[in-house]
Hints:
It is a single chain. This protein is α/β, with parallel strands linked by helices and about 180 residues long. It has a single domain, classed as 3-Layer(aba) Sandwich (Rossmann fold). Helix 1 crosses helix 6 and helix 4 runs parallel beside helix 5. It starts with a strand and ends in a 9-residue tail after the last helix. The mean pLDDT is about 95.
Amino acid sequence: xxxxxxxxxxxxxxxxxxxxxxxxxxxxxxxxxxxxxxxxxxxxxxxxxxxxxxxxxxxxxxxxxxxxxxxxxxxxxxxxxxxxxxxxxxxxxxxxxxxxxxxxxxxxxxxxxxxxxxxxxxxxxxxxxxxxxxxxxxxxxxxxxxxxxxxxxxxxxxxxxxxxxxxxxxxxxxxxxxxxxx
Length: 182
């Protein structure tokens, strides 16, 4: 099988790539960037992934532009449902490229994270597959969560501490002060 794997970052690629290769699946990566903010964060993740991909002989397709405005316009006033949009945008882009490249299927390293909504990713992947005619390959990679973390640390890889969008960065770092009544 020839599979296009949406890759969100280097650390999250480690375990899925190993599993897929162990299943004798030919894997090519695809890096989608519109959802990663700020741009310096996007570049840092891309650089880390590029080094890992080169080390693993993983061929990559790199999204050439950075449509920050499109991403923000698509989620503004729908911030609570932003992940649905983000999953769809990434999976749809991967499926379109997979179709053009005559891949048998597409998948995502999102399925490695214990912080992502697997049922929603699976639902969107199936809908995108139906729309594009390219199979969505679902595999729960979470069982390798700890091993992937350990390997990324041993490699000295940059490990981000939030999903990607500016909203997830806020969720991660902003802790409202507790006000006491006076």
